[in-house]
Design brief:
Four copies of one chain form a homotetramer. Chain A is an alpha/beta fold. Chain A is built from ten helices and ten strands. The first copy, chain A, has an eight-stranded parallel beta sheet. In chain A, strands 1-2 form a two-stranded antiparallel sheet. In chain A, helix 1 packs parallel to helix 2 and helix 4 packs across helix 5. The longest helix of chain A has 17 residues. Chain A is globular and about 50 Å long. Chains in contact: A-B, A-C, A-D, B-C, B-D, C-D. Chains A and D meet through helix 6, helix 8 and helix 9 of A and helix 6, helix 8 and helix 9 of D.
């Protein structure tokens, strides 16, 4: 093990080249990846409307929560299995891959059945039995940074997964908790280049959770791509004001579409393209 | 539900009087409770030496980790089942109750077999499936505050347990994460009277995790009792410098014994006594 | 200079014994000191009512802001010179010493004329030209910790004053800024014993600024004395609800009087007494 | 005054259009501005070498500290008047404007003589007497965000200056203090679009102080421009490893030159250009 860092398998010292793996035609870690969708799956009409819209833009990754970790036991907790079924059906119809959150070990087999990437939320970043089990899940893992986790702790959480057998880990910066409450969290933009230098794993950014404010998402998304992020995960909704969760931070569909061209332009400056069907994006 | 607070069953509005429940002869929530022991069970000699010493002081609650959540996958992870067996044997020999950490749902039945109070660590405070399952565990739960959790989130985590059927929840302030790194965490001393005013649940404090520095533990323990805490949970070790985890914050046995009399004096000022066998304490 | 710490003159290594200096009959650093009064001097009636009340309790130190650093330029900024005159007159009438805030170098001579202890507020803790000038002021300085200052930075700020010629510095913990907004700041209780071990300077605590909530002040004051603080500085007001600033955190006069006896009891456990006229306290 | 915000003159509600003012041929608030130079002026050779290099790139604004606020009284405190003279001479020789820090009211007349923009450092953001005096200084002010200041407090600090008579204020995000210590501060990238929406004042970003790590500066600079920042202030040094202060975060001269073209490309995506002599940049 490195004498400098407490993590090993996830480090650049262990493996110099970027980790790249293909899902649904996109080479994550080499192409830029765009993951979009609602905070939570609410019903068939909602998820189908959003998915159809995203697919027309060429987006290949659909996010949607079925099991939702909510601060209050009395808040909407997600549609659970039904939500996963709706998500899978919508994704299959439009040729998209599914990203959804896993909250406990006993749901791994179900998530593996319905989703293509299993997301570990910020509250579970240090749920070590879960991380170990995900090392054997056979699916890529999107590992969100804990809301008060240092970069070292985050990489060590990834080390739990990788050392348990699964190298396909996508790190996701989603903002940390600070004294500033004008935004929901404080996005740590410097974490993008710093983690890219420390680790070979892909790093994406969540501007929706990171800011909590819809109108800040385009500017922050541009910043993330400019800083070298391997992609974005963004909450969009056909009716944000009626959303059952996180409506304030969900983009309107048109708002989402409008920001894609400039993101591509910024990506091109690094000679990197977004991994979606280009001809579709241009229609 | 209260219009003022998002939690209900744990609130003072729902239930005015303090929640009090008896374990091993101590009325938690009315008596002050002292929980002491090593960070982790390491071997039979260690746990027996410590337990014997504590029992002679009249201490009735033995803490000890068997399943340890560690930031690195390469750190000592605890003796697991073997640790629980050693802990139970030592406790039984000296008439003590056992407090140990639960990290995942699939270990609840094992913990229930060996421990009297199940501790939820700071990293799992928002592990909602675990909290719900603990609502049905039939044993008291010691719920540590998340390292970056607000008081409201902490009370809502307790609400998950209570609303799932288990009112015997002990809240434990253990320090929050701040910019200050002279101490391991920053103890939120005002949380003690504030939570006591918002909730009927007992609230204790962990000066060991809260400071990370052995020599600060006595002063902070006095502060907690003076502020009205319902008790303390303290790491002690017969050989702190050889401890497999958290040695720097573990008290020497004599250091622990030396601070008990003044804690009792402070408790008396509120007309409250520590719940241990008084005659033993005086030898 | 010490190889371990970046500060020198304020360190325990430089000077082993506690710094003790006498003001108005109280040996600060040996006796416990109680400083009380309104956030700001508002008018003659207010300051006289409060001062008379405090003097009957035996309190020897009157606080009151004349120059107030306010976040908004449109908030009440203090009565300035007029406030200092009112403060001095009230204090003289009742035999008390005056503590008031200094905000800029060009007011030092005025403050020196009217006050006995010059307070440096949290926003000026790193106003180095001011600190250097206060090293030559010839009056004791009460140096509040910056709201996001580490303990090391705080001691280095004191080093600026001491190395400029003034060893009579009282350090004051007043809470740090964290993500928790249930209280105005998060009091760092462990800072009391930690700073006492690192430095020979007296350390007091401000439970009013530290919590921002009147009803938490008694519990936190007890905690501070139990933790070994050399005193307290507390906001009291004859009509908190009409206060021009900080009313929510100001104690009612009776509330203040009620908490004194238990503070004395806690102080006695360390064989230390509060520095006020004992017979008066007992009436 | 607005019922929604506590600030008035700096708000978008008060004045819809961007504040734009010209200095040295650059329209700050409309053009993007690049300010570069060493942390501190150290000697004539250093400042001349750096200034010559920057001028060849077309940079129009030279930064350099003459009065340095240092955490320790024993650290290098700047060359003071001599530093200002060296800075002014170098700037004049190469046609550049000077940005330098003001620490106290009694130095304002001197700074006004030698500098074109007066910088208020993070430690003085709430030094209200200084802010008021700068409202009458007749020079533009670069107001750094306090290291633990909320956006609201920062805008209120600007309100102090503007309401005292000086509308030419440039806001500078320079990172806030958080628990994460992998970087010196945590840059709040979302503050850029958020403050631009709340206020008409120009907003720039300091990636050097914000990260504390040289190699992160290019990525973060790109992010800032992509997010809509009105410019950057960057520390560069001809010999960073020998720098008397902040060497770790100072760019090598070539490193600085290398990142300019891509910053310009990103700026162009918004139809905004950097305000420097373009032909020079291309040599």
């Amino acid at each position: 093990m490195s004498t400098r860092q407490p993590y090993q398998l996830v480090s650049r010292e262990w493996k110099t080249e970027d980790t790249v793996f293909e899902i649904n035609g996109v080479h994550i870690g080499r192409d830029r990846v765009m993951i979009a969708g609602p905070c939570a799956v609410e019903n068939q009409e909602q998820i189908c409307t959003i998915t159809e819209f995203l697919s027309k833009l060429g987006i290949r990754f659909l996010r949607g929560g079925a099991y939702k970790p909510r601060t209050s036991p009395y808040s909407f907790q997600g549609l659970k299995t039904e939500g996963l079924i709706l998500l899978r059906e919508a994704a299959d119809k439009y040729g998209m891959a599914v990203v959804s959150e896993i909250m406990s070990e006993d749901k791994i087999s179900e998530l593996v059945e319905y989703a293509d990437i299993l997301q570990v939320g910020t509250r579970n970043m240090q749920n070590y039995p879960l991380l170990r089990a995900l090392g054997k899940a056979g699916k890529p893992i999107l590992l969100k940074r804990g809301m008060s986790s240092t970069i070292e702790e985050w990489l060590l959480a990834a080390e739990y997964i990788v050392s348990s057998g699964n190298e396909r880990v996508i790190l996701c910066e989603r903002g940390i908790r600070t004294f500033e409450n004008a935004t929901r969290n404080t996005l740590d933009i410097a974490a993008i280049p710093l983690v890219k230098s420390l680790s070979h794993l892909p790093v994406i950014l969540d501007p929706s959770q990171g800011t909590g404010i819809r109108d800040l998402v385009p500017a922050v998304s541009k910043a993330a791509i400019a800083a070298g992020a391997d992609g974005l995960i963004i909450e969009v909704h056909n009716q944000p004001k009626e959303a059952l969760s996180d409506g304030d931070q969900s983009l309107y569909l048109d708002q989402f579409a409008d920001m894609l061209p400039v993101l591509e332009e910024i990506a091109k400056l690094d000679n990197r393209r977004f991994g979606y069907t280009r001809e579709k994006v241009r229609i």
